[in-house]
Amino acid sequence: MFSLRASRLARPAFRLTKRFLATGAEDARFRIPVIDFSKFREATVFDERKRTADEIVTAFKESGFVYLAGHGIPAATIRNTFAKSAEFFTMPSETKNKLAWEDPRSNRGYVTVGRERVTQSADPDEIASLRAKAPDFKESMEIGRDWDAEWKNQWPAEKDAPKFKDTMLDFYQTCHDLHVLVMRSIALGLGLEENFFDTKINEQCHNLRLLSYPPIKTSLLKADGQARAGAHSDYGTLTLLFQDSVGGLEVKDPRTGDFIPATPIPETIVINVGDLLARWSNDVLRSTLHRVVAPPAKQISETEGITPARQSIAFFCNPNFSAEIACLPNCGQEAKYPPVNTGDYIVGRLAVTYT
């Protein structure tokens, strides 16, 4: 299995000539920085690690998002995972539907187009109304830790999706390993012991989500509130997002309310803060609203266009489901939120998101 600690293979092939990626007018304040994480992974002295840690925490305080370069995951690994994901979604619907998502406590299995409606609302009736009016136009495959004694992953037969299971399990572990390192950088940036989070995330209660956004006619995107994925924040600690070149991710500028494109940058991973980490940090770290919109359409008639297909892979990082999330040291003297159990919080959010 690939080791993030040892590898120097995935240094960014491009030169990081800009400290920040501007996402709007030149004088706009909203920035998503490009951070070279190899300077943290390969540092030989503490001060080098601390400088990168401070950059990451500063970004998460200001925008809640970073582009992580030098992350240590080889491009070939990511390409292969995308290829196996694409092969999965080309399977017949009847084959995929046998693997259907069933329970928010499991959060595993196939989710057909329109079944999920991500939103900030926690009202089941409001979400049902939104889903009926403007469902998220995407399908997904949800994968959790494979050794769970209670909840099992829903794997396709090997003959239907050769090497799919092995590829996804390896990628799951690789993403977890990166999560551990980024959380260590956050701990340093917040003035905590570097290993502060290790025992609070070691049970790997994460969710690997493979996403396919099929082509869609522009006329179907004109409904009120329609998007490929509606505006939302994520639930856990961090999200690692692997994008293809099509794009469509937009991030909400918390100052202006405008949604700004997070244009794909080759060989980087988009990483954002989730709600539980924001809550853990007493809102020192920002969980920012984002959405997926359709990229420019190809005209197929005088009155109709069609958007391109899009693929992405999201690794939703969570604390251990047994962990209590309460205000961290160094994040304010007065807690804004009462303590909450991770498992209860995640399951509660998922329960109202799906039909």
Mind sketching the topology for me?
Layout: E1 20-22, E2 31-36, H1 38-41, H2 46-62, E3 65-69, H3 75-89, H4 93-97, E4 109-111, H5 124-133, E5 139-143, H6 164-189, H7 198-201, E6 207-213, E7 229-232, E8 238-243, E9 249-252, E10 259-261, E11 269-273, H8 275-280, E12 290-292, E13 298-299, E14 305-306, E15 310-316, E16 324-325, E17 340-341, H9 342-351
Parallel strand pairs: 2-3
Antiparallel strand pairs: 1-2, 3-11, 4-5, 5-6, 6-15, 7-12, 8-11, 8-15, 9-10, 9-12, 13-14, 16-17
Please describe what this structure looks like.
The protein has 355 residues and is α+β, with helices and mostly antiparallel strands. It has one domain: Sandwich (Jelly Rolls). 27% of the residues lie in helices and 19% in strands. The protein contains nine helices and 17 strands. It has helices at residues 38-41, 46-62, 75-89, 93-97, 124-133, 164-189, 198-201, 275-280, 342-351; strands at 20-22, 31-36, 65-69, 109-111, 139-143, 207-213, 229-232, 238-243, 249-252, 259-261, 269-273, 290-292, 298-299, 305-306, 310-316, 324-325, 340-341. Strand 13 and strand 14 form a beta hairpin. The longest helix has 26 residues, at 164-189.
Gist of the model:
This protein is an alpha+beta fold. Pfam families: 2OG-FeII_Oxy, DIOX_N.
CATH top-level class:
Mainly Beta
- What do we call the CATH homologous superfamily? B-lactam Antibiotic, Isopenicillin N Synthase, Chain
DSSP strand count = 17
How many domain regions?
A: 1
Note the beta-strand portion: 15-25%
CATH architecture: Sandwich
Structural class: alpha+beta
Pfam families: 2OG-FeII_Oxy (PF03171), DIOX_N (PF14226)
Family: Belongs to the iron/ascorbate-dependent oxidoreductase family.
Protein name: Fe2OG dioxygenase domain-containing protein
InterPro entries: DIOX_N, IPNS-like_FE2OG_OXY, IPNS-like_sf, Iron_ascorbate_oxido_reductase, Oxoglu/Fe-dep_dioxygenase_dom
